[in-house]
Write a structure and sequence with these properties.
Family: Belongs to the short-chain dehydrogenases/reductases (SDR) family.
InterPro entries: KR_dom (IPR057326), NAD(P)-bd_dom_sf (IPR036291), Sc_DH/Rdtase_CS (IPR020904), SDR_fam (IPR002347)
Keywords: Oxidoreductase
CATH class: Alpha Beta
Distance between the termini: 30 Å
Number of domains: 1
Strand order of the largest sheet: 3-2-1-4-5-6-7
Number of helices: 8
GO molecular function, one term: oxidoreductase activity, acting on the CH-OH group of donors, NAD or NADP as acceptor
Organism: Lentzea tibetensis
Number of strands: 7
């Protein structure tokens, strides 16, 4: 892995909006060559975009092939793509549960599996998984989302043990509530309630999550870590 600030090739899944977009822009500002996967919509200036649904192995493999042909071997994978489909357990269908887990957890596994072979061969690489405070803290009405985000921690720590001797690290960033389209749509009373539960009394900006991701990409001796960026909401978990 080249040192922080040096040229690297970064792939961010779900990199056209929200946290993923901020991560892509932060790596661009750090001098990296950045590719993002997306399912449509405007992309950050300066990135190489490729359409990809992470629930499809075929599309994941094709996306990696295209990025590697255009930008070269991928040094850093940021597994960010994710969805929500929230409701209480008594109303949640199996399809709702499976679709969220397939995108958020299995999709990240598909990308990590594809990235691992090249990283192991080159004996260097960074995998960074975007989890959530609810993966450790839990949240009513988010059983599918929380389960998928908790699973990313087990995935990352298993890969840290499995791939560490080959120079590959695997870490997790666990954001709390972030100012994105999703939180902007919260009813005012819920937004106020959530803010009051956060010791810093505010939601994060996407750029604050991105700074932790960029730091991990340059942290040679950090692996298997879960970095909370949640304003203190999940402390102790």
């Amino acid at each position: 892995m080249r040192s922080k600030g040096a040229f690297v090739t970064v792939l961010v899944t779900g990199g056209n909006r929200g946290i993923g977009r901020a991560v892509a822009e932060a790596f661009l500002a750090d001098g990296a060559s950045v590719a993002v996967t997306h399912r449509g919509g405007p992309l950050p200036d300066g990135v190489f975009g490729v359409k990809c649904d992470v629930t499809s192995k075929t599309e994941v493999d094709a996306a990696f092939d295209v990025v590697e042909a255009e930008l070269g071997p991928i040094d850093v994978l940021v597994a960010n793509a994710g969805i929500t489909d929230s409701t209480v357990i008594t109303r949640m269908t199996e399809a709702q549960f499976v679709s969220v887990v397939d995108t958020n957890l299995t999709g990240a596994w598909r990308c990590a599996r594809r990235a691992a072979s090249g990283m192991v061969r080159r004996r260097t690489g960074r995998m960074i998984f975007i989890s959530s405070v609810v993966g450790m803290y839990g949240s009513a009405g988010l059983a599918n989302y929380a389960a998928s985000k908790a699973g990313l921690i087990g995935l990352a720590r298993s890969l840290a043990r499995e791939l560490g001797s080959r120079g590959v690290t695997a870490n997790v960033v666990a954001p709390g509530y972030v100012n994105t389209d999703m939180t902007a749509a919260l009813p005012a009373q819920y937004g106020k309630q959530y803010r009051e539960a956060i010791p810093l009394r505010r939601f994060a900006q996407p750029e604050e999550i991105a700074s932790a991701v960029v730091w991990l990409a340059g942290a040679d001796y950090v692996t298997g870590a879960v970095i909370p960026v949640d304003g203190g909401l999940g402390m102790g978990h």
